[in-house]
Amino acid sequence: MRKVGAFTFVLHSHIPYCRQAGRWPHGEEWLHEAAAETYIPLLNALYDLVEEGLVPKLTIGITPILAEQLADAEIIQHFQEYLLEKIAAADKDIARLEAVAEVAAAPDAAPDQAVALADAAAATIEAERVATLDLPVAQRTAEAVEELTEREEQDTAALVKPIAGDRPLDEAEETETIDEADADDESPIPSESAAKDLPDPHRLFLARWYRDWYAATLRSFSERFGHDIIGAFRKLQDVGAIEIITSMATHCYTPLLARDSTIYAQLATGIDSYERHFGRRPRAIWLPECAYRPAFIEERSGMQKPGVEEFLAAQGIGCFFSETHLVEGGRPVGKATDDAVGPYAAIRRKYVAPAEDFVEPSSRTTYQPYTVASAPVAVIGRNDRTGSQVWSGAHGYPGDPNYREFHKKDSFSGLQYWRVTGPGVDLGEKDYWHPDWAEERVASHAAHFVGLVEELLTDYETATGSHGLIASNYDTELFGHWWYEGIAWLKGVLRGLAQSEVVDLTTASEYLAAHPPTVAMMLPEGSWGSGGTHYTWQNADNEWVWPLIHGAERTMERLVAEFPRAGENIAFVLAQCARELVLLQSSDWPFLIATGQAREYSEGRFAEHLARFQRLVAALEGRNLIEARSLAEQYNALDNPFPMIDYRLFAEREGRAT
After folding, report:
1. What pTM was computed for the model?
2. How far, in Å, CA of 407 to CA of 428, rounded?
3. Parallel/antiparallel/unpaired status of strands 5-13 and 284-285
4. What is the H or E stretch that residue 472 is in?
5. Which residues are CB-neighbours of 138 under 8 A, at least 6 positions away?
6. Domains identified in the chain and CATH numbers
7. Which residue out of 289, 485, 510, 580 is catalytically annotated?
8. Residue 475 appears among annotated catalytic residues
9. Which terminus has fewer CB within 10 Å in the chain: N or C?
10. Is residue 153 annotated as a catalytic residue, yes or no?
């Protein structure tokens, strides 16, 4: 059968720079959680599909700062320690729950005896864990994997079947449209035991399940992927299964930067990082926060500033991705629907007029790529219809009552034993999670999504006679971390579409090679943030960061002019200046300040990088080279990404993209 269109997931993988910058609740555990719950499960899913003889054809962005962190030897060791800690946390829950069950089974047992025995059992597990901390992490990893293998050999079925009864979904519950999906699920559910002195067989099952899940993740990381997440993704790209795209070095919010030198250097540093990790140059990019800035006339100087696409074209990038409303026009949709308010709502610039012979397309759609009018770079818009199936809080798949609840965690271990249960259900009223029930819903939702993609592309081809593309764009960490079942859903969708008779699975650059854009458009300024503007990153809560960033940009230009061909020691200091500069420019800091998710932490991180930059500059300008070198070495031990960063990239280049 003739294929009517093509589909690609476009996943954006990013974690803020957090090496040696704290642990729970903010810091390096962001990386550990994402690696354990998203990146390794995703790699397992993709490798499984390849071994089945299928080609997933996934487009996945890995930001340069994330790649630098995942390849860092210290973070790799800390990640293994994190997994061992999670296994120990599950073991303590198991010991506690087994002790309660043992006491309950004894005649004339007192409730306080159960609590005391449970606490003692958990304390014993913790003492055993502490006693092994001096052993090499490789030895502890090998022992944990060996114990998992032994349990699998003893009783494989016990690892995958729940203790507290299976519940197949009734045929009436097997919905085909998401609007009807289990909104009123009234099936009888075993409720959570309220007392610590009562037996709780299902929580005991889940504790054992988590112990083995984390041990299996550790085994995959160690044995299947050789402690090398980045290398594992590279192998998939090398065999043509996926396309890895790049981003700005530290995920800077590009339109709000003051100097063209910074945009150029952020892009060049990111491309250099990509080449080191993936052995080739990238062909496409995820613009941080999907934030785009066209060419404009700077009000004060009258200078014409290049559009973002001009920087991309100058460095060989052929494609980027845009939020839906920037391509289609009209009001923001999906992620960008929140209204921006006050003086920050509008974007006011004097934009460069298009060439006289430019003709605006008569219709604009995310089903087709376009060339941005001022440069030979393609833009692909996010398809909102498929995106809402996951992003929508009201109707998205992750809200299914049988899926794992993200926000409720056990007070002892931090493990997540509960399910969504239903819309608006209070955390205290959540029912227990049943992985087998969730698995059934995954299969149904994957089939629904495959059918939706086929229907949308068929309808588009029927209406226009054109071969359409659907780019369904998401943050990678949504899958597995936020929505636990999301990785299995992705795997099911990729398997279904790989076998589709009407849709081609593709990657962004592969599609553009086969179907180059034939129409150009002028793309408006905006992002996928609140209201589709820059509001999330520049508002009353975080606007104070921008004058500081802009001042640092100009200082870096001045340093490059002062030391155009620095010797070894000064070049080392200037490289660390450049490192601290790009780290303080991360869009994560103003974002986290604005959302309040980690306000004090992000304000502190921004201030640290700014202070390190300023101290290095002061030492250089005071000609105190011994102090400057000493500070640079001290800061490099903390902030060491982009080992080959070239400070000369930050030379002044206003009005130029090259």
Report:
1. 0.90
2. 11
3. unpaired
4. strand 468-475
5. none
6. 545-650 (1.20.1430.10)
7. 289
8. yes
9. N
10. no
